[in-house]
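USER: Fancy drafting a protein?

ASSISTANT:
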Amino acid sequence: MRGTEVQPPAGTQAIGRALAVLKLLAAEGTELGLSAIACELNLSSGTTHRIVRALSAEGLVAHNPRTDSYYLGTGTILLGQAAQRGFGLDKALPVLEQINAETQESVNLAVREGSESVVMLRVQSTLPLRFEQHTGARFPLYTTASGKAILAFSSDADAYVSGLPPRLTQLTERTLTDPVKLSAQLDKIRRRGYSIDEEENVAGVRCVGAPILDADGRAQAAVVIQVPTVRMPTKRIRELGERVVTAAKEIAQFVPIDRIMSR
């Protein structure tokens, strides 16, 4: 997004630019001045001012007069809450909270967006040693327990793997870089019912994930437990794997999976 002006379809330029401003503020997670917004999106100062003023009028952007900067407004909170209800995530959250209470570990619900896994819900561990993460974080499908759990039960799994380069980008020393080995791992996940991230996405963190399946046995979302490696012996991997499978089945009863589409 940096340095490149958004080019939406003809006739929707203003909408595309407004969405780009909202996405930028969400990604930065902090206040930005008009000049910073204009620079990031390659927009003129006048255009940026008009967009921000229109978004502010709807409560989607708020202004801090002390710093003369802008941040996401309360209107985005209301939209987010409505979206969570529409996707059934408000009902999924108690399931994640229950797992967290039982295990004291961090729990995520992630969805697939194209070739990435995106964290939609998170219940953070309160233990001193934990992996910090935030909702909206996104990672390649092949590096995460959530992504591999979703892939294993996706209709385009073979096409995804065959479209990968011969050597995948390595995020840690243990990241799978061979598509053939990834394919074999997906087969194992299908047989076992849950996926394992052996420090493949973040060094020092092991994860287990289970797909949230629709009526046809396909997945676009997954439940994941993240644990520092020092608290995750092999025996616990199996125990937590069985737990996320149960949780995923519970969530599938009230989350409309057909609404969570891969993009």
